[in-house]
Amino acid sequence: MSGHNKWSTIKRKKGALDAKRSKIFSKLSKEITIAVKEGGGHDPDYNAKLRLAIQNAKGVNMPKDNIERAIKKGDQDGANFSATCFEGYAPHGTAVFVECLSDNNNRTVSNVRAIFNKFNGTLGTNGSLSFLFDRKGVFEFEKTSAMNFEEIELELIDAGAEDIEVEEDAVTVTCALEDFGNLNKKFEELKIEPSNAELERIPNDTKALPVGEAKSVLKLVEMLEDDDDVQKVFHNLEMTDELEADLD
Question: Most buried by CB count within 10 Å: which residue of 46, 67, 135, 139?
């Protein structure tokens, strides 16, 4: 768990430099569009999936107009997107799991394969790496002085939180897949709006590499994340202190 949270912390520290905001907005717009189709309409009060997608969009300060356009698009062509996953190894044996939403599967397969090949990685068959990752719910929110944090912690644990990690004022809460909905409701009851709430694939073991080799893995990850069809990329590279220092 600590490897995942450490990477989340590094991403927060790197901030706008690596945010590539337009890419993030594009991916979140796609999630909103899909949520309208799959979650049952464009009213977030009655569509939990859409409510969550809008919440994540607000967490990265996505403009209201962008959110509304994505919702409208869901009524028109959201069904054109389909979800697909890729599993493979980056150079030096690091496991990589890629989640995509695409309206052209042939293009997506071609692009993902080309990125793995560029870095001497290899794609595997679906299911070949799933045992290396646990599907978990991950929530992030800001701790404020107005909060009774000890009481909030107890409430979250009662709702299914397995791990609560505090880094300065940033709080990361992790739960089992089946408790994701319960925790989401608990945040609503507590009137806490997470900056991010989603299902992630957490590595159950991490792989430490020398800094030079680790950076080549991160280059592959970043190139995958830059692809328009890729929504999320998960890996089991260990974020060592040496690698964190080199990224600062």
Answer: 139
pTM: 0.82
φ, ψ for residue 232, nearest 5 deg: -145, 150
Whether domain 82-131+205-247 has CATH 2.40.30.10: the reply is no
Contacts of residue 243, Cβ cutoff 8 Å, sequence gap at least 6: 211, 214, 215
**Above 80 in pLDDT, residue 33?**
yes
The CATH fold assigned to 132-203 is Alpha-Beta Plaits (3.30.70)
Amino acid occupying residue 125? T
Q: Residue 195: helix, strand or coil by DSSP?
A: coil
Run of H or E including 28: helix 21-39
What is the three-class DSSP state of 19?
A: helix
231 exposed, middle or buried (CB, 10 Å; 0-12, 13-18, 19+)?
Answer: buried
Angle in degrees, 0-180, between the axes of helices 149-158 and 180-189, rounded to the nearest 10:
150
